[in-house]
Amino acid sequence: MKLLKFSALALIGLGLITSCKKKEEVTDVPLSDTKTTQKYHQIKEFAWLEGTWENPTPQGTFTETWKKADDSTFTAISVFVKAKDTLFHETVVLDQKGDSLHYIVTTKNQKDEKPVSFTLKSFTANSYVFENKQHDFPQKITYTKVTNDSIVAEISGTKNNKPGLEQFPMKRKQ
């Protein structure tokens, strides 16, 4: 009986030692590969934005150009040009910090050119909604991928105590 108990304990102990060694062998593999592929998984969803998008109208042409800055960041420049005059200019940084995505806008001649941050609040396969309820207008920015070569950017919220909405349909230029 004592031999049976001893044998059982020895097998359990051997099993624990073996499983610990196996665990050590797995953790000896560098984790950097895993971290790199999983760390910025959300921002990768926006790779389709890279390139130049535009909407020519009789009032002028709205253009938005997106570039990948690094593993966690995309940047964009948005301009509205009529003839040769730039009537509107802003820069955008789409940035992932931890599990949070931020759409950070700096608009020329507005808010002392200080950046305003919007946080990703909801998304579907083709639509991404960023919000900042403390901002005067807009409080919400939405990007909808209509096709691979067509998007609609939308700003909305309350402006002067009235609901406001502006849409910017764009086609891929490059």
Report on the architecture of this protein.
With 174 residues, the protein is of the alpha+beta class. The chain folds into 2 domains: 2-30; 40-172, Lipocalin (Beta Barrel), CATH 2.40.128. It contains 2 helices and 10 strands, in the order H-H-E-E-E-E-E-E-E-E-E-E. Strands 1-2-3-4-5-6-7-8-9-10 form a 10-stranded antiparallel barrel. Strand 4 and strand 5 (100-107) form a beta hairpin. The chain is globular, with a radius of gyration of 26 Å. The N and C termini lie far apart (80 Å). The relative contact order is 0.11. InterPro entries: DUF6265 (IPR046232). It holds the Pfam family DUF6265.
CATH fold-level topology of the largest domain? Lipocalin
What name goes with the CATH superfamily of the largest domain? Calycin beta-barrel core domain
**Can you tell me the CATH class of the largest domain?**
Mainly Beta
Task: Record the strand order, biggest sheet.
Answer: 1-2-3-4-5-6-7-8-9-10
Number of domains: 2
Order of helices and strands: HHEEEEEEEEEE
Secondary structure class reads alpha+beta
Query: What Rg do the Cα atoms give?
Result: 26 Å
Which residues sit in consecutive blocks of at least 5 with pLDDT less than 50? 1-37
- For the record, the CATH architecture of the largest domain stands as Beta Barrel
Question: What portion of the residues fall into strands of 2 or more residues?
Answer: over 45%
